[in-house]
Structures are given as structure tokens and as C-alpha cells.
Write a structure and sequence with these properties.
By secondary structure, this protein is mainly alpha-helical. The protein has one domain. It is built from nine helices and no strands.
Length: about 170
């Protein structure tokens, strides 16, 4: 997809943080809402397949929207260290998140409540890490190492190699 086509996709970055806050509020009042975290986890992959780019990161991501909106005033605005921006570190972080989530799913043993709780914990863990990084570095530092971004980029490479997308 060319740049002009991507620009036609309306950005909701200025207010998509509301989805993230709503998700955590709903999940606190009723654990069953935790399953909605799967939507947040799989949207980047949907956009890679549909638009062949990481349009989710730049136009939609509620976590990035939250970090950018609320950490601007308190961030030290430092650059992430070079070692954190390497493929090796991003792949390690992706692997750790997948393993952590897999263990949580295994321990849920098919229980909808446990599954919802595991998803909410994963979402909270990544938001917490994003907030810490956003305070010490730039507000959206998490976006540079986000496992969903890394995973969707890997999916894009696989699809391009298999000629599923052009």
C-alpha cells in the first residue's frame, strides 16, 4: 500500500486511549470483560494483513495513544539505549511475552474467568512497563520495542516471502 492510501486511513490516536482506560475499568468490575484484550492484541496483525503496514501503531494503538497523551509532561525525554532498539532485544522481549502469555493460558485450563484474568494481567504488565519506559525515556518509548509491533513486522515479512501480500 502506498503512502497516499495510508494517509486516507483516519487516525484516532488523539482519543483511542479511551478504549484502554475503559477496558481496564470494565475488567475491574467484571472479569469477563478481560477477554476484550484479545482485540487489542490481534488488531496489529489484522492491519498488517489488510493494509500491509503497521498502520495500527501509527493511527490506532490505544496504548501508544495513552502513553503519548499522559506522559508528555512527566517524561525525561531521553532516547532509549541502543541495545534496547536491537532486533535481538526486541525478539527476546517478544519471546518472553509469548512464553508468559502461553503459561498463563495453560494455567487457565480452559476457564473463561482465568483466561480473561490472564489477558488483563498481560495488558496491565505491558502498560506498566510502557509507563516506566515513558517516564525515563520518551513518552512512547514502549512503541519502539512493543512485542505486537515486532510480531506484526515478522508476520509481514512471512507474508511477503510467501507472496500472500504484495
Amino acid at each position: 500500500m502506498d503512502r497516499s492510501s495510508l494517509l486516507k486511513i483516519k487516525s484516532i490516536q488523539s482519543w483511542s486511549w479511551i478504549f484502554l482506560v475503559s477496558y481496564f475499568i470494565l475488567a475491574q468490575f467484571n472479569v469477563y470483560f478481560g477477554i476484550l484484550g484479545l482485540v487489542c492484541m490481534f488488531m496489529p496483525f489484522y492491519f498488517i494483513i489488510k493494509y500491509k503496514s503497521k498502520v495500527h501503531c501509527s493511527h490506532i494503538c490505544p496504548r501508544g495513544s495513552f502513553l503519548g497523551k499522559f506522559l508528555n509532561k512527566i517524561s525525561f525525554n531521553n532516547h532509549l539505549p541502543n541495545w534496547m532498539r536491537t532486533k535481538k532485544f526486541k525478539n527476546l522481549l517478544l519471546t518472553m511475552m509469548i512464553l508468559s502469555f502461553s503459561f498463563s493460558l495453560y494455567n487457565a485450563r480452559g476457564s473463561y474467568v482465568e483466561l480473561s484474568s490472564a489477558i488483563t494481567k498481560m495488558m496491565f504488565m505491558s502498560l506498566s512497563l510502557g509507563i516506566v519506559l515513558g517516564i525515563f525515556y520518551k513518552p512512547r518509548a514502549w512503541c519502539q520495542i512493543c512485542p505486537m509491533s515486532t510480531g506484526s513486522e515478522k508476520l509481514k515479512i512471512i507474508l511477503l516471502k510467501s507472496k500472500k501480500i504484495k
